[in-house]
Amino acid sequence: MNGLTIGKLAHDSGTGIETIRYYEREGLLEQPARTGSGYRQYTPDVISRLRFIRHAKELGFSLKETAELLSLKSNPQTTCGRIKKQTEEKIRDIEIRIASLQKMRRILKKLSTACTGSGPAIACPILDTLEK
């Protein structure tokens, strides 16, 4: 058998060995063939699949969403419109998270401004606000 070892796959794809094993357990990667002594042997196309997963993750897709994208990618009936819909849903999700983070930042700035930074912690307006 002339496949890639998990170490070589990890190196060539820029993915950690434990991450590769995790993706196998989660079904994002098929279980590879094994040598007679039990070593995993991956085909070279797994490198591009791992890169796909990494890029999807970098763009905020969850592993479940990434698995769905991979499934759509391999389905010849899938249209670009379906992929665009997935992307637009992710954009809406990100916009909601951004709005939430901006709200948290505004509140934390207000709390930080209210605190002089001196005195005992028991009198800290930040802790007092969190307690209410």
3D architecture notes:
The chain has 132 residues and is mostly helical. It folds into two domains: 60 residues, Multidrug-efflux Transporter Regulator, Chain: A, Domain 2, CATH 1.10.1660.10; 54 residues. A two-stranded antiparallel ribbon has the order 1-2. The radius of gyration is 23 Å and the shape is elongated. The model has no long low-confidence stretch (mean pLDDT 93).
Short description:
This protein is mainly α. It has six helices and two strands.
- The level 1 CATH classification of the largest domain is Mainly Alpha
Q: Give the helix level as a range of percent.
A: 55-70%
Largest sheet strand order: 1-2
What's the end-to-end separation, in Å? 65 Å
Write down the Rg. Answer: 23 Å
At the third CATH level, what is the topology name of the largest domain? Multidrug-efflux Transporter Regulator, Chain: A, Domain 2
Number of domains: 2
Fold topology:
Elements: H1 6-13, H2 17-26, E1 33-34, E2 40-41, H3 45-58, H4 63-74, H5 80-114, H6 125-131
Main attributes?
single chain; 132 residues; Multidrug-efflux Transporter Regulator, Chain: A, Domain 2; two-stranded antiparallel sheet; 2 strands
